[in-house]
């Protein structure tokens, strides 16, 4: 089956104090000026204008205010047009929950607040890193992970396999929005997200395992629910997928200026708690 990369695991011995998904050396903190066409961010860095690439196609509600501290990493490709990549946004004036008071360690801006991870490639990388480290209970027993695995005309973020287990297809999503303590996805209407849910429902109907992996890259979400107030179709499909046997795994990320680690699992609100 075609795929881009494969990881063999688990290797429990790889766990340690370093984050599972480290940022590149040379990260800097600048001040946000504006977001242009979603994928370009202007910031002030060392009292000069600088530009960073953002791979986040969502609205990033509440995270694009001018003057907001932004953590950027140097581009991995020398000579890239945009020399920086946006990794995190500092949400100021927000006390951290007691259980995660270390998640904004290292060089954080002063005052109350925490980092919110906005790089949408992190959940995919976390899936692979956590699997290799033996930190994905739902993938216990699987021996291989194919990334960007193809199924028909669709491509999903991960396919776990083992000769003695049914295939496990996984789609990853990054969560940056929290409303009233509820981590919500998506933060903009997402036809692509709806397509992924339908694909996973079809996989489950054919007797294979199918799952969503949501990574909440901020510390203040206590539970998870689909954002029906933004994309009602996605929310309806989400609960239909649950009823059809699609598994849902929501994890909190522990974000600081050195990288992102995997925190604990968050519960999913049942359908009756959806907003009217």
Model description:
It contains three helices and 17 strands. The protein is mainly beta. It has two domains: 97 residues, OB fold (Dihydrolipoamide Acetyltransferase, E2P); 153 residues, Trna Endonuclease, Chain: A, domain 1, CATH 3.40.1350. Strand 16 and strand 17 form a beta hairpin. The N terminus is likely disordered.
CATH hierarchy, class of the largest domain: Alpha Beta
Q: Main beta sheet, described? A: 8 strands, mixed
Strand content: 35-45%
What's the number of structural domains? 2
Please specify the SSE layout and strand pairing.
Blueprint: E1 5-8, E2 21-22, E3 28-36, E4 40-45, E5 48-53, E6 69-74, E7 84-92, E8 113-117, H1 122-132, E9 144-151, E10 154-162, E11 165-175, E12 177-179, E13 182-185, H2 191-205, E14 209-216, E15 223-226, H3 232-243, E16 247-256, E17 259-266
Parallel strand pairs: 5-7, 11-14, 13-15, 14-16
Antiparallel strand pairs: 1-9, 2-17, 3-4, 3-6, 4-5, 6-7, 7-8, 9-10, 10-11, 12-13, 16-17
């Amino acid at each position: 089956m075609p795929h881009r990369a494969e990881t063999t695991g688990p290797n429990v011995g790889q766990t340690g104090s370093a984050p599972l998904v480290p940022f590149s050396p040379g990260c800097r903190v600048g001040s946000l000026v504006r977001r242009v066409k979603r994928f370009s961010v202007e910031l002030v860095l060392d009292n000069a204008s600088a530009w960073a690439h953002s791979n986040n196609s969502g609205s990033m509600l509440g995270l694009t205010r001018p003057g907001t501290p932004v953590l950027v990493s140097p581009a991995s490709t020398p000579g890239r047009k945009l020399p920086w990549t946006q990794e995190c946004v500092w949400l100021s004036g927000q006390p951290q929950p007691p259980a995660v008071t270390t998640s904004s360690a290292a060089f954080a801006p002063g005052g109350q607040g925490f980092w919110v991870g906005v790089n949408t490639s992190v959940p995919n990388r976390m899936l692979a890193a956590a699997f290799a480290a033996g930190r994905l209970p739902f993938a216990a027993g699987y021996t291989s992970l194919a990334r960007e695995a193809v199924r028909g005309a669709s491509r999903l973020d991960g396919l776990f396999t083992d000769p003695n287990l049914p295939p496990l297809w996984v789609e990853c999503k990054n969560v940056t929005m929290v409303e009233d303590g509820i981590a919500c996805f998506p933060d903009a209407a997402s036809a692509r997200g709806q397509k992924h849910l339908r694909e996973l429902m079809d996989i489950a109907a054919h007797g294979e395992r199918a799952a969503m992996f949501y990574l909440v890259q901020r510390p203040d979400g206590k539970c998870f629910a689909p954002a029906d107030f933004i994309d009602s179709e996605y929310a309806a499909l989400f609960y239909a997928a649950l009823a059809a046997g699609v598994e849902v795994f929501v994890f909190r990320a522990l974000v600081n200026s050195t990288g992102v680690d995997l925190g604990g699992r968050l519960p999913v609100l049942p359908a009756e708690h959806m907003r009217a």
